[in-house]
Design goal:
The chain is of the alpha+beta class. The protein has three helices and nine strands, in the order βββββααββαββ.
């Protein structure tokens, strides 16, 4: 689960919204107080809001920017770029857990030394982040906590 807090800096006193994604790929739930008032998701490069109540103009744009600016959106690409010869795919399970799938034929023990020794340079979050790293067949693995 990923939970973000959104408020408009341009409009002091405006409501504080919570934006929650329970599972990767699902729409984000938009919560005002203790009430879910809609969902937000990105389709064809555009952020869409399905709301059951009226919301301020520009809310979906602000929330979309908030989501896109989060480090969990950038970290998979950074991992893929840094270890392009080792990593096939990175899946965001939550803002504190990532699944890393390696390409076929790599030496997983060697990659564990490389990855464990330097992945912390990429992590910008203030909380513990777990990387579960698997070979292509998911028959061997290791875990790194940063």
């Amino acid at each position: 689960m990923i939970e973000l807090t959104y408020f408009s800096e341009k409009e002091p006193g405006s409501p504080v919204y919570h934006v929650i994604q329970f599972n990767p790929g699902e729409p984000w739930q938009l919560v005002n107080g203790d009430e879910v008032i809609g969902t937000v998701d990105k389709q064809h490069g555009l952020w869409n809001l399905r709301s059951w109540s009226s919301v301020p103009e520009g809310l979906v744009t602000g929330i979309g920017q908030l989501i896109e600016n989060q480090h969990f959106n950038k970290l998979p690409g950074q991992i893929m770029q840094r270890w392009f010869g080792y990593v096939q795919q990175v899946v965001v399970l939550s803002d504190c857990e990532y699944l890393v799938i390696c390409i076929d034929g790599i030496n997983l023990e060697r990659f564990e030394k490389l990855f464990s020794g330097s992945v912390s340079e990429l992590v910008k979050d203030e909380w513990m982040v777990r990387f579960r790293v698997y070979d292509t067949l998911m028959s061997a693995d290791f875990e790194v906590l940063v």
